[in-house]
């Protein structure tokens, strides 16, 4: 009797938690943080007002709509492509008996460490007209290779460098999957495919959608890749207008971009709303093995191929730049300093730390509360993630000059920009890990008389720690790669690896970009190790 | 020596409208001797300021600074050998620089120009520059926003394109420069009201492959390019590049939007290839992948300096947008409290040494008459650039519109 009473009280407490002052406080905190992050983007409206009645005619101009359609199509293609590459790779590396499984896991995740614009540059150097591949093929009599430029090329390159988002989130879901369910289905005579479709797939769907959301928003906000691949999308359109002294028009276009983001977010919450699949019992997690037989060797070709194109190719191209930049380049030194590397790591660490502080209340709250305020706080920051760096920079320059002049061009402003832009990646992983915490454990702790704070510290926190670490590593990784906002918002005389790469590339000194580019990939690669190590812990 | 002569012959083939300065070895030797006397010391750096002590305005003159020899201000390679000594105000005759200063410097060529600022900081131990680099147009808008908000961050804006200087001038975010600072530069390369002054010139040009074309194949008006068979489908351009947009803007100002759009359409339909930047265009020309291209002049010189035997040469059109000479220039930002330092800094940028540096390291056109153009190219006077107010190049909106309409996306 006594036990049952205790359980009942705990249940009541847990229920009351939704309404309690602390719960509401946490919701408020999450909402306030989300509002503070998104508000500066509202400063774009000030610029748009300056357009007056022209704003409307520009919004519905055929050229604007044409770019809009193309951008949406690219987002669709890249997202679909990433799911098609990322999910099979995740299934193979988690459940398949591949030779050198751990190695292929690292290979499949690594493209995320390479900035997609460097990847695009490498792809063009290799597969473009008169590129390395054309040089190899022309003696064989093949004169014409299909062009890498254009929509298809851009979609392929973006898929190659963004699918790891889907790969990682899908892996996480698979690793926490209750394998006994699949075994049960097989026992009940379901074919392997039917078991996958009816049992595994619904369980990992939230993971796939979370990754697909990141891919879709990344694609929407990326500038470098479409620009190199010569596809006119929203960001490229905005960038050209901004650089032609049409800041107001650029701001208007940015607001349209946010509208597209809102639609993407709404779509995602439709598909991913069913969080029930994310709860796992503590049973036989992820241990289910897919016996591939002899097929396991050809199956290893999939990650091998992806790794070859996405990782080895850019490294080979960087190396070529490095070797080619012999003497005779009388363009002087423009010396590289390792302090740029330290600066990169330093701001990325600050951004990761700040993002975790901000994302923890939002992520935890949205995982445990159904209130509209909590879910809005969870969703709204994604607008920042979809904001192209240049847009964020325009908004923050106006905002800080008008409102907080002492904040302008300081390190805190730069870190704030990173948090706005990349923190949502941490919300996702923290939220997912909180969803996977067995509520029974929390209830048990409370039943055994632990206070709410103590329960959080000794039960919830250790269980969500891998999610926090993954989130921090993702923010670190993407901050290291960020260019447009860094360029405009950084303090005077503050250079990072990417701003240095930008400077030397703009000056045509491709050879000088090789060392910092490799350093960037290596440091980013180390943070991938953090992400994968978290998986091993949940394994 | 023969190799050098070959080079100058190829870069500087002779024709009435493209007269190049092909200097013989003897002239150059004399010239170098002259420069030694001007700068009071050769490579041994014995120059502790022959004329420096009494030179300059003397306002902030401390101990005379150690000015390195001329060779320190010169790049290396075949294009740099055999140059005459620069004529103009020497750094030695300028007041010492001291104190700190914030500089916004445009990306691209700006990265190379900045090395001169680093040299200045070595020459003057008390002089410090805090610099920030982004694209020139982005910095221009930042400058205007900051000045409007009453909190300018930088003292000097050094843009690589006149359009960005024009934008800042139109928005009145500058302070006019004193006449005696800008005086060495011809008036065509200064802003109205002395809002800014050109520091280095960038000429539009037609790099062409000398195995495929001779210079007589290239018409002297860009308007005739679409009807020229040897150029149809064999040229390259980089429409996203700012200098290309300035070129199109110039054409629009000179010939009107209709004719410009038609020109773009016929070039595109003829099969002109798109490239990400003009350095790539120039390299493709040197490789023989393209017969010719549209590019700023210094890219071909860079290719040439890197690969002296590359079959690439430059042609210039006459009196039209194809002959536009744009400039990188400096502007004093409104609200700076360092007027003297900024003025003296800009004086340094226009000194003989600085101009020699920009000309031999980044192959820019010098802005003062006493310094010879790079690689034996004709002087800007000989080039016959169109009659255009460079500041008007900032009116980019109609340019982007007509590029769109022509389906040549900028």
TrEMBL record, chain A:
Domain of life according to the entry: Archaea
Transmembrane segments: 21-45, 65-91, 103-128, 148-168, 249-267, 300-323, 343-362, 382-400, 459-480, 509-533
Subcellular location: Cell inner membrane; Cell membrane
Bilayer topology: Multi-pass membrane protein
Keyword Cell inner membrane: yes
Pfam families assigned: BPD_transp_1 (PF00528)
Domain ABC transmembrane type-1, first and last residues per copy: 68-268, 341-531
Signal peptide: none
Cellular component terms (Gene Ontology): plasma membrane
Any one Gene Ontology BP term: transmembrane transport
Keyword line: Cell inner membrane, Cell membrane, Membrane, Transmembrane, Transmembrane helix, Transport
Family the UniProt entry places it in: Belongs to the binding-protein-dependent transport system permease family.
Protein name (database record): Iron ABC transporter permease
Originating organism: Haloarcula salina
Lineage of the organism: Archaea, Methanobacteriati, Methanobacteriota, Stenosarchaea group, Halobacteria
TrEMBL record, chain B:
Keywords assigned: Signal
PROSITE patterns: TAT (PS51318)
Pfam families for this protein: SBP_bac_6
Listed SUPFAM superfamilies: Periplasmic binding protein-like II (SSF53850)
Region (Disordered): 40-68
Residue ranges, compositional bias (Gly residues): 40-59
InterPro entries for this protein: TAT_signal (IPR006311)
Record protein name field: Extracellular solute-binding protein
Organism: Haloarcula salina
Lineage of the organism: Archaea, Methanobacteriati, Methanobacteriota, Stenosarchaea group, Halobacteria
């Amino acid at each position: 009797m006594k036990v049952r009473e205790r359980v009942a009280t705990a249940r009541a407490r847990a229920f009351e938690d939704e309404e309690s002052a602390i719960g509401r406080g946490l919701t408020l905190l999450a909402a306030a943080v989300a509002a503070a992050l998104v508000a500066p983007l509202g400063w774009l409206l000030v610029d748009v007002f300056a357009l007056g009645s022209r704003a409307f005619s520009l919004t519905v101009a055929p050229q604007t709509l044409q770019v809009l359609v193309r951008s949406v199509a690219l987002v669709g293609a890249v997202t679909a492509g990433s799911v098609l590459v990322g999910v099979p790779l995740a299934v193979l590396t988690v459940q398949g008996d591949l030779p050198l499984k751990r190695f292929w896991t690292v290979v499949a995740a690594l493209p995320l460490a390479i900035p997609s614009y460097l990847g695009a540059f490498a792809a063009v150097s290799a597969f473009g007209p008169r590129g390395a591949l054309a040089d190899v093929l022309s003696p064989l009599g093949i004169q014409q290779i299909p062009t890498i430029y254009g929509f298809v090329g851009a979609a392929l390159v973006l898929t190659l460098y963004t699918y790891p988002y889907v790969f990682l989130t899908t892996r996480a879901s698979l690793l926490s999957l209750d394998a006994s369910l699949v075994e049960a289905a097989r026992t009940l005579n379901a074919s392997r495919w039917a078991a996958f479709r009816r049992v595994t797939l619904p369980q990992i769907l939230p993971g796939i959608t979370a990754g697909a959301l990141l891919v879709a928003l990344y694609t929407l906000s990326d500038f470098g890749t479409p620009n190199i691949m010569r596809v006119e999308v929203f960001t490229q359109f905005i960038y050209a207008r901004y650089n032609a002294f049409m800041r107001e028009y650029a701001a208007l276009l940015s607001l349209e971009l946010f509208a597209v983001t809102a639609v993407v977010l709404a779509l995602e919450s439709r598909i991913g709303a069913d969080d029930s699949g994310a709860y796992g019992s503590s049973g036989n997690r992820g241990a289910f093995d897919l016996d591939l037989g002899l097929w396991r060797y050809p199956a290893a070709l999939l990650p091998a191929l992806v790794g070859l194109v996405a990782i080895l190719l850019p490294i080979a191209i960087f190396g070529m730049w490095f070797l080619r930049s012999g003497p005779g380049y009388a363009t002087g030194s423009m010396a590289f300093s390792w302090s740029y590397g330290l600066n990169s790591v330093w701001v990325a660490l600050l951004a990761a730390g700040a993002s975790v502080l901000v994302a923890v209340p939002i992520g935890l709250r949205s995982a445990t509360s159904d209130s509209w305020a909590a879910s809005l706080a969870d969703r709204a920051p994604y607008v920042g993630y979809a904001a192209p760096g240049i847009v964020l920079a325009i908004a923050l320059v106006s905002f800080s000059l008008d409102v907080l002049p002492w904040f302008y061009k300081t390190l805190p402003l730069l870190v704030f920009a990173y948090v706005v832009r990349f923190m949502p990646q941490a919300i996702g992983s923290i939220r997912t890990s909180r969803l996977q915490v067995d509520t029974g454990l929390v209830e048990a702790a409370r039943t055994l008389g632990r206070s709410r704070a103590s329960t959080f510290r000794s039960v919830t926190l250790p269980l969500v720690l891998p999610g926090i670490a993954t989130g921090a590593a993702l923010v670190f990784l993407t901050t290291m790669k960020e260019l447009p906002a860094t360029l405009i918002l950084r303090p005077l005389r503050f250079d990072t690896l990417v701003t240095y790469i930008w400077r030397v590339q703009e000056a045509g000194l491709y050879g000088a970009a090789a060392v910092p580019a490799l350093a960037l990939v290596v440091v980013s690669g180390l943070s991938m190790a953090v992400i994968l190590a978290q998986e091993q812990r949940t394994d | 020596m023969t190799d050098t002569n070959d080079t100058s012959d190829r870069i500087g083939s002779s024709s009435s409208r493209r007269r190049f300065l092909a200097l013989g070895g003897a002239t150059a030797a004399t010239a170098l001797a002259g420069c030694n006397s001007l700068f009071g010391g050769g490579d041994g750096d014995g120059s502790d300021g022959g004329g420096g002590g009494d030179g300059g305005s003397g306002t902030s003159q401390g101990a005379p600074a150690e000015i390195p020899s001329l060779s320190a201000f010169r790049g290396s390679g075949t294009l740099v050998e055999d140059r005459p000594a620069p004529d103009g105000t020497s750094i030695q005759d300028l007041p010492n620089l001291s104190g700190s200063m914030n500089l916004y410097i445009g990306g691209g060529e700006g990265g190379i120009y900045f090395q001169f600022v680093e040299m200045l900081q070595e020459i003057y131990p008390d002089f410090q520059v805090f610099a920030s680099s982004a694209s020139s147009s982005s910095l221009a808008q930042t400058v205007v926003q900051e000045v409007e908000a009453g909190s300018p961050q930088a003292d000097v804006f050094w843009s690589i394109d006149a359009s960005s200087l024009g934008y800042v001038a139109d928005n009145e975010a500058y302070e006019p420069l004193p006449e005696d600072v800008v005086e060495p530069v011809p008036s065509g390369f200064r802003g109205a009201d002395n809002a800014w002054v050109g520091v280095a010139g960038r000429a539009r040009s037609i790099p062409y492959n000398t195995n495929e074309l001779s210079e007589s194949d290239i018409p002297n008006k860009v308007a005739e390019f679409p009807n020229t068979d040897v150029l149809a489908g064999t040229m390259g351009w980089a429409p996203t590049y700012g200098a290309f947009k300035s070129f199109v803007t110039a054409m629009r100002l000179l010939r009107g939007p209709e004719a410009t759009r038609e020109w773009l359409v016929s070039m595109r339909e003829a099969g002109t290839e798109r490239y990400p930047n003009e350095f790539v265009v120039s390299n493709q020309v040197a490789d023989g992948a393209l017969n010719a291209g549209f590019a700023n002049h210094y890219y071909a010189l860079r290719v040439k300096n890197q690969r002296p035997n590359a079959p690439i040469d430059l042609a210039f059109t006459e009196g039209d947008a194809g002959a536009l000479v744009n400039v990188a220039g400096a502007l004093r930002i409104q609200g700076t409290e360092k007027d003297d330092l900024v003025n003296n800094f800009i004086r340094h940028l226009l000194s003989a040494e600085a101009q020699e540096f920009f000309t031999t390291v980044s192959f820019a056109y010098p802005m003062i008459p006493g310094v010879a153009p790079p690689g034996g190219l004709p002087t800007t006077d000989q080039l016959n650039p169109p009659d255009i107010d460079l500041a008007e190049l900032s009116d980019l909106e109609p340019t982007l519109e007509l590029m769109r309409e022509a389906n040549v996306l900028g």
